[in-house]
Amino acid sequence: MSRGVSLQEGQLLARSLNVTKSTRQVIATVAAAVAANAAAAIQLTGLIGQISLLVLIFVTLSVGTSAISSDIYARSGQTIANLRSIGASSRSLSSAVFFSVIGYGVAGSALGAGIGAALGIAMGGQGGAVTIMVTVLGVILASSAAAAAGVYAGVRRTWRS
Amino acid sequence: MAQLGILQRNEAQAQGRYSVEVKHVSKSYGETEIYTDLHFQLLKGTFVALVGPIGSGKTTMLNMFAGLDRPTSGTILVMGQDITKMSEDALGEFRARTVGLVPQVQTLLPELTVRENVELPLFFAKVDSEDRRKKVDYVLEKVGIRGEARRAVSTLSVGEKQMVSFARGLVNDPPILLLDEPTEALDPLMAEVILGLLRGDNLTLGRTIFVTTHDKRVTELARKTLRVKKRIP
Question: Which of B114, B119, B123 to mutate to test the interface with A (most CBs of A within 10 A)?
Fold first, then answer.
């Protein structure tokens, strides 16, 4: 399959699956909290510590989004059965959830990374503007990749069960 | 059923293709046997009605043709594709492109409008937005519910929902249309519309139609009738 579904299609499917504003806010808040802590701590540690923190972000957020994604699908069993009968695949449904929440996840990560970067500087973190920018970008990328992996894993797990 | 298979096979040899091929299919749920060693073919472009008592496994057969239920053993080919060996995702793509399904139980999404519900199969078939708009407008007009396009499905009557479900089954212009008791919830006028469309699609477009029914008007319209005699205990 060349692609899942587009943003517009994703939003439509997300409505069908009851992906609510609250769901999106939970994702944004968790992403912001994790990113803020990591972006601050990254400035206070060496290379190994920084890599460890990025891995921690990825693991924490992917497990969290996987659980949220599984929950969405578990609550929408009948809707999913209906969508399957007219051609939905696990890929198209995971794309739908992904597109409907990823904006909030990235926004939360960016906000958290910004706050974390400022906190890190205030706490005496080392590094110039470029280093901090790279740190912030790394945190956002790790968060976004984690959200994508988590959503997909959650859907696959529910689809198979 | 075996007799029908022979008749169909002779016709099919002239055309060279079947829409559905059922090869030694058995289906059981636990200890309960629904079908044993079914073997028959349906020609492309045929119109077949499946009749039988309630609880005799008619919907099970329809669901097996749609790949929503798998046989316990044997093989089913739909439009030349062996659906018994497909993964769940491959079955999704198969349904999106090959099969129009009009189930007996309402499977529309109440949160969405009529238009959005009808448009959904086109998303899964990856039809672009301009073509989607045209196809949805066309099918809503054809079924006579274009005026209801913006209404939420939750506000429709049972009969209107069935018409939307019918439009959704047709929107992809599928080569095979599977319908489960399509006229059951309809008033006589709506039933006439559906029957007219089925007859027209079958005759002019050559669409294969497989329908489970208790409605004599449907069996009279069909070219062949399959009978399931026994009620499953």
Answer: B123
| Chain centre to alpha carbon of residue B92 | 15
pLDDT in tens, B101-146: 999 877 899 889 999 999 999 988 889 889 999 999 999 999 999 9
Tens digits of per-residue pLDDT, A80-129?
888 888 988 877 877 777 777 788 888 888 899 889 888 888 888 766 77
- The sign one gets for the Cα dihedral B159, B165, B169, B173 is positive
More confident position, B45 or B10: B45
- In CATH terms, the fold of domain B2-225 is Rossmann fold (3.40.50)
The reply to whether B73 touches chain A by the CB within 8 Å rule is no
Of A1, A5, A82, the CB nearest to B123: A5
Select from B53, B69, B65 the least CA-distant residue to B22.
B65
B135 touching A, CB under 8 A?
Answer: no
Residue B124 and residue A92: Cβ atoms within 8 Å?
Answer: yes
What are the residue boundaries of the structural domains of chain A, listed by start? 7-160
- CB contacts, 8 Å: A84 with chain B: 68, 88, 92, 95
Looking at the complex, does the CB of residue B161 fall below 8 Å from at least one CB of chain A? no
Give the pLDDT band of residue B54 (cuts 50, 70, 90): confident
Question: Exposed, middle or buried, B196 (CB in 10 Å: 0-12/13-18/19+)?
Answer: exposed
Q: Is the ipTM of this complex over 0.85?
A: no
User: Residue A14 to residues A9, A72, A137, B91, B111: CA-CA distances in angstroms?
Assistant: 8, 10, 28, 22, 11
Please name the residue of chain A whose CA is at the shortest distance from the CA of residue B132.
A9
